[in-house]
Write a structure and sequence with these properties.
By secondary structure, this protein is mostly helical. Helices cover 70% and strands 5% of the residues.
Amino acid sequence: MKGMKESATSGMSKVAGSLQELDPRIIEQISSRINFPASKDSLISQAKDSGASQGTLDMLNRFEDRQYSSSDDIKSEIQKIQGK
């Protein structure tokens, strides 16, 4: 049982680390190349095309499945996920 708890905890640490590693420049790249409104899937596709890190892709995968209308909308969603 102890091993399972440690695995779950280390998995959470990896996610938290990914959130902290999110590079704002990648978000700007994605935002500047996307036509708004954009779906979650469009954002992920653009991020992949821009060479985004796995941490950025992980973050985008946590977005709500809806339309995003601007780069500020994307930043707000990131802040919501990060708990700020």
